[in-house]
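In the lab's daily routine, each protein ends up as an entry in a very long ledger. A line of letters takes care of the sequence, but it says nothing directly about the fold. The fold becomes a row of whole numbers, each drawn from a learned catalogue of backbone shapes. The protein below has been through that process, and both of its lines are reproduced in full:
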Amino acid sequence: MSTSSPIRGRRVVLGVYLGVVVIAGLMGAILGATRPDVVEPELFGVIALPGTTLGMAIYGMVTIGLALGVLLVAVSYVAARFDSHDPAKK
């Protein structure tokens, strides 16, 4: 039997979130490296980024990070406010 602490839910969700953001950055970098002449990224339709590897990586990470981050904060708020599970009342 293992004596290490169990994996907590918040830690797993945060790890998956960070993994997805990193993958989005890598995919943006790959896209920017393969076709820099085709892409013209704009953050939120306002901030123009270069179509380079770094520009596309930033675009992918910020876009996915913000979209998923807003959803995670909303779910966390709802779960903390309306969770009625009480393990002591079995």
Notes: Residues 6 and 12 are 11 Å apart (CA to CA). The radius of gyration is 19 Å. The longest strand covers residues 42-43. DSSP finds two helices and two strands in the chain.
